[in-house]
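Training component of the fellowship. As part of building independent skills, the fellow (R.M.) carried out the full modelling exercise for a liganded target. The chosen ligand was glycine. The inputs are recorded below so that the supervisory panel can assess the work.
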Amino acid sequence: MAFDTIIAGAGIIGSSIAWRLAQQGLRVLLVDAGRMGAEASSAGAGMLAPGGEIDERLPWNDLALESLHLYPAFVAELEEESGCRIDFQRLGAIELALSGTEWTELEARGQRQAAFGIPSCPLTRSELRQHAPLARQDVAGALFYPQDAVVDPRDMMTALRAACLAHGVEIREGVRVTAIRPHAGAVRMETAAAVFEAPAAVIAAGAWSSQIAVEGQTLPRAFPVRGHLIGYPLAPHSLGPLLRRGHTYLLQRNSGFTVAGTSSEQVGFDRTLDPAILADIHARASELLPAVTGLLASQRWVGFRPAVDGRLALGRAANTAVWLAYGHYRNGILMAPGTAQRVAQGIIASSGTGSSALPGRP
Ligand code: GLY
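Fellow's submitted model of the complex:
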């Protein structure tokens, strides 16, 4: 079968791009070295929370905010096309400050963020109790971010698989792309088992992306930043908004399963769970949510955030039909809808025919 686009990496980024292209009638091959969505996309907590991540004006901020605004419609469309339910909740986030100094810094951050489109407002003591009765109440201050949301990334992946298949995307798992050779307006993608050709290719292989050699190009180096997470079985709807303090956070699925994170380690692709880091996350989570203090985590896991030298590899590699979509670091789940929109539009526009005359199935 001939393909219009071949995508290396079937995580949330690659799968979202595949879905968007296939919706426009393009014939898409989506390959993954392992199982679809099995790495960072399944490990991610699913924070859709720029308020906790964006502290200064940077080029990728717009993409994060644009994606957050796209999320409700993206989820609704994905649910409709896939027939799968997605646990998506827009309950906001509460950032807690435990000292006067922390509160001064947090208020100043909120004011800076307001200038680039992230609203927040201080909560009174009674508002904190009302929004988050289980949260620690003896705090120096609490800032509420009303637009923040959470999504279960595993639901997203289940739905993306179904939606991709419904649109005829060919998914091949256990196929590692080793090299891409751009030639005469097209690309040849090499795997151990086969060689594929198409007018365009996308590299969306997360922390593994720069292991793919692209002839004539030096790609931004991708590397993993490991994060540990733990999960507790709590009563459904007991947490309320996402709760956070710096890079410590708790969020709850509709089932009641409550995820606490996290850590950052540059240890390569080492999947070993570190008991000291897990204990530290439990201690930090207990500080914010005393209800988990005496609980044993029912799940513990690690994921590899896809970091990159520089900021976010997004766009077309010079003079090729190879598109880069990796390096989303702490915000891959958040930035999937916006990334998919931009890359799919770029590929369609550069096909030179406009969407009314795209190559595709009859
Ligand atoms: N986005 C949260 C994290 O990377 O832990």
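The panel noted the following from the submitted structure. The domain at 5-84+153-221+309-351 is CATH 3.50.50.60 (FAD/NAD(P)-binding domain). The chain is about 30% helix and 30% strand.
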